[in-house]
Protein 1
Amino acid sequence: MVESQPKHTAGNFRTDKDNPADHTEKDKGLFYTIPHKIVDDILKEGLHSMYKQQIKAFTEACVMVREPALEIMSCLKKANYSLPPVKYLIYGENGSGKTMTLAHVLHYCAVEKWMLVHVPWPAFWNLFTTEMSASVWKPGRVDFPLAADSWLKHFRQQNRALLEQLQLKTSQKYVWTKRESLQPGEPLTEVIEHGISRNKFSSDCVGVVLKEIRQQAATKGFKAVMVVDGINAFWGPTRVRLIPKKYLHVGNISLVHNFKKMLQPDWTNGAIVASVDQMAHPPAQRKNYTPKYLLGKWGFETFDPFVPVFVDKYSKKEINRCIDYYIDRKWIQTENGQTLEGRKELIFLSNMNPFQLYQACASW
């Protein structure tokens, strides 16, 4: 007769604090639940497709409270916003949880009523954009009308309540054509709507929105945060061809040019939270995950100074609590997966990597 393996006794793996502003070191390693409205309105565009599938399978959206997010949120609470924006740069190996760290911080900023300037994955522009046109504003630059249109809609969705509350106005006249212009004192939302309804000007409207945010963050008394997943794409290669055998230089993409202006130290009441990611580059340029390698000389010098935030693999406590959570959600269903030996095997197979653990558990 074969004796059954002893089961691991699950401990508490959830925190009852669902507001990220309340998270402390005591909550580290515990899962908190994100309301579905926050997922739909704030986080959805920046989440990995597999995590979106997980939300459906688990019937809830949960994120583990980990040290990198706690560190950034603590700094955001204590920063001096009369100075230029502090830059926080998240880095780590693939699957370690960089995107989920950004999601945690983004949720915090949304709850605290920051203006969100969120760029979910700029590498998509560099590598997969096919719809383009010559800039109507700056000769030599290239607009991505549909990408700019999508971003304006995303910005409107994330900041709808705050835009209604602040009632921001344009600070100057903006001329689109001889017959189309926007006078000083017009609602900033008119710029957003113009870019959405007139795709020809969508990239320029993105630039105007970002310019007005930088100018008005301090004068109107609101905080603004730019959150970018894979910011190294701002200085990376492109696969966008203007003519055969010649690729577009990333600096000539209007969207990239406009967002990089947010990195300049000429505004206050803001912060920059970004990640560098190997997947934002083509396969030949994914040898290392360090900021200096991924940003390159040009990008590193532009982004510096910054606060480096390393996202490590799971600790022993974190990985055991994650397995407890997967058992609770029936992601691990086999009898063996719930034993001490099965748990050890999962930890070995995943090498303590959060994404690899999720994949390894799929067949258990």
Protein 2
Amino acid sequence: MSSCCPSSAAASSDISSGVKDYYGKVLKSSDDLQTTACQTPVTSSISKNIRLVMSQIHADVMSKYYGCGMCVPSCLTNMNVVDLGSGSGRDSYILSRLVGQQGNVIGVDMTDEQLAVANKYIDYHTTKFGYKQANVKFVKGVIEDLQKVGIDDNSTDIVISNCVVNLCEDKKKVLKEIYRILKFGGELYFSDVYCDRQLPQSVRKHRVLWNECVSGALYWEDLNKFAIEVGFEIPRIYSAHSFEITKPELKQVVGDVKFVSVVYRLFKIDKSKKTSEKKQVIYDGGVDGCEQNIKFDYKLEFSTETPMTIDDVTWNIINQSRLNDFFESKKASCCAKFVKTEVENPFEVVARDCEFTKPPTSSPCC
């Protein structure tokens, strides 16, 4: 993670230059970070197959990694993926392994030093993964304008971003650009930092806190508003955890503002093909690494053993996305219980400690 996106304003140019310097020159490893915002929590649930791939990533790439979550979704075979703010390439290389030889990964970053690390180890990972040719490339660019790096409309299955969008000043513009490049059924799977209120300028202008993904944090309600206005379905919380600013001089700046790191899933679907039916579905176990269960968001986890009723919003996503091949479905009974899709406050999710809450199972019609 290191890329942001400058706008035309001089202030934005200063932000862009500051971020480049911070991630290219100031930080030498994750040990140099001043907050925990750009660190994956040790309690994060990382699947066995991802841990195995991580063990194959070169140590130099790993040591230069900065991110606030694990941005590797399931069901990746043969997918075309774009990694925004790819930095040293850790997530891109994990994706490279998981999409397979026939898949493709593009890492976009604007920091020369980070790109140099990522590009240095392309051949290493191509050999390590047993590929005949590389399926990953790293390009220099800003994530507000992906046309400049040759990413066409409706060309991408999945976009990931690991603690990068908050470094951009015009976040809605970033979402619009991501929506543009995604295919129908495509997904933005990304982690970022959010705050519980609109931040005052005294916090916004703090250079260290901006570079560490704190001052640029969106108010969580704005993320949901922007995403829906751009055209995405209601953002779904995959996981969330809170963190605190502990350094006294930085804590004094933020005061009592609360922050949370969230992995969100945003789907782009063809609205002309939406249905209004809820469905009963069962997972067939065909996704690598998810042989028995597959997690959809923090409330929904599908099993090969138990049918589950889902609302029309969730069904439309599954039906139009890459997940469709791995589910059997039928019309749900009239009074089957289901989890309603709605905008949720991530701070309340964390406070309820709901990450492992299970949804109600389907029940027969009364």
Protein 3
Amino acid sequence: QRRVHGIAKNSMDIEDINKDEQHTTKKVELAQIKHEEKEGLQKIYIKSFGCPHNFSDGEYMAGLLTAEGFKIVDTFEESEIVVLNSCTVKNPSQEAFVTLIRKAKEQNKPVIAAGCVPQAEQGLGDLEGCSVVGVLQISRIVEVVNETLKGHEVKLFDRNDLPRLDIPKIRKNKCVEIVPLSTGCLGQCTFCKTKQARGNLMSYEPSAIIERVKQVVSDENIIELWLTSEDSGSYGRDIGHSLPELCWEILKIIKPHNVIKIGMTNPPFILEHMEEMAAILNHPQVYSHMHIPVQTGSNNVLEAMIREYTIEDFNTLIDYLNQNVENITCLLYTSPSPRDLSTSRMPSSA
């Protein structure tokens, strides 16, 4: 078995062919070889765990593989090769990912591991014998599958460029388009493995997102647009743009039946746009919903976590949104540890 860390040019690639007849013959031969390689190993099961961003990545991989002629199947049992798109936020998700790897190995099914777990834990023992598609390498899933079918172990971890938004995609929910805004974040939270996987903030240019939205809303089946990232509130800070600016631009081009849902945002960055975000959340084509993690009601714990805000900041944000956005739902928090209960100051409105 050979391990490939950056897929080299395949020996079957065609170079320097000048005559049309020769070129056509070589292409036909190459197509036949590829077909023979995939014969009996065409059914692929893709399982995604975790956040909407991860599910979007899984949908893109399904689209690329389908365009190449592979068949995406609904169950593990039907499959002959498995793509597991992992999440590292919660232990149960990671444990389920590892369990499926072991199950696939027991049944001698080739495994491609994707998502945050292999990116953040490259030395994880269960990844031995698996190919890996890093979080920013999803557009190369076809290459990785083809190499894996030849018995090669491929590991792609580079995080240099964002995947394009206009590559083929197969949605799990025909009515929902998940639109990635960025990857990574600006935080340095002490407990977060997602940061290790996704890295620093890399935002898509507004023009790329707008073009994707235009393409998507031409499909009358699409009703909801989920704007997602690891921290939506920080969108654009690395490229001189902002989430409110982007939302207003998107609202100009969507159809009357479309509705926008804005993904998770951390308190520090959304605080800067509190008034404008309230106006956006009151728009009839935007869900009055915000996913804002507080993590704990203790400033001591927040400081130890390097969360870069205080419970007073969180209270200010929640109180403002509750007072200025009709019927808003916005909340995600975890209880403080018992020794910090005396300093806990959760907002009464939450």
